[in-house]
Amino acid sequence: MARILVIEDEPAMQTGLRDNLEIEGYEVEIAGDGTSGLESLLGHPYDLVILDVMLPRKSGYDVLREARAGGVRTPVIMLTAKGGEVDKILGLELGADDYMTKPFSLRELLARVKAVLRRSEHSTSGDGHVTIGSTLIDFPAYTAERNGKALPMTPKELEILKFLYDHRNQTVTRDRLLTEVWGYDESVSTRTVDNFILRLRQKVEADPAHPRVILTIHGAGYKLVV
Q1: Helix or strand (DSSP H, E) at 172
Q2: What is the pTM of this model?
């Protein structure tokens, strides 16, 4: 049974999410503010977090930022009344796995919960250690190292790298990366992908300004060459 932490301050939303998730067979815990939510996330194992952005005591963005900095790799779906592209990109770049704008359909949320849990299960059953460029990656453990030293990477960076590695020596479009890694077809700017690729090159390329591992295929997308 998957264990889900809901960090949400609105009582009606707490009740609705708990009831519907429990009907689907999930074990649910509730935290009513950002500080207590972060404490729960750092102190207990969960399979998924549903995280509101606008929270008392500590914002959802701060919760996510501090959790990732603390080594938490639990998948996160962010909920917010903000619908701007900048807000979505910020959440995704901080390490969110999906992003829903209020008001939303509970049916759609449940579908996304299943999709994120399915992707998480798949990603943790990966191929173990692989070398990409000058970086050693352990996909199941969500860790990376370079020259014998730990290399910080966000879960989303590792998921993108895993998808590119699984399709190595093939051209992958930006739209496909958005759909497959983030799990939805909404119109999110492909600049999101470009920004992540730039960051990944800094971590795997010997000379990021002249990439030889993650190539740009102009007019098409990207290719991981191994």
Answers
A1: strand 171-173
A2: 0.62
